[in-house]
Design goal:
With 186 residues, this protein is α+β, with helices and mostly antiparallel strands. The chain is built from seven helices and five strands. α2 packs antiparallel against α3 and α3 packs antiparallel against α7.
Amino acid sequence: MDYLRSYKNIYDQNIILMYKGELTFDLVTSMIATLEERLEELEENRKVKKKFYNVATECIQNLYYHLDEVNSDEIRISSYDSRSALILIAARKRFYSLQTGNYIPTEKTEEVKKRLDDINAVEPDELRALYKQALKEQEFSDKGTGGLGFIDIARKTGGQKLRYKFQPVTDNVSYFTLQVRLPREI
């Protein structure tokens, strides 16, 4: 009977996509395609659909690109793999909710926190200027990313605050959770 209760809970929460485990390139590609199909079924507003698809794609790709920053030996202590990630996407009545979770080197938490706090402190109409400034100043990493993802997510969600949390796992590793909301009416 527990499985029926779990299914009902997932159904009642309007879960679009839920995944916990190791991420691979093929899995990321499959998730993005599945998300696109599900959004076609759920969302009539083309503008909202496009924005949310772009935000979700950015979040999922960010997870994939940054998974290898943690030493696998550090995580095995807790029975999880360093490439393990969490993705939960739900359709609420007034907004879409996207939550991601992944391991991050503890030494990077302050840098990520500062970046997120700086973005959250900016008014929605100032995000475009912040994006252009970051684009000018950023050097692209060997992964091809320039650190613009969080700004882009905030822009596309209409300046919704990016919620986050860091939980220590070991002395050198923390678990980073990011929650993003996108209003269903734009």
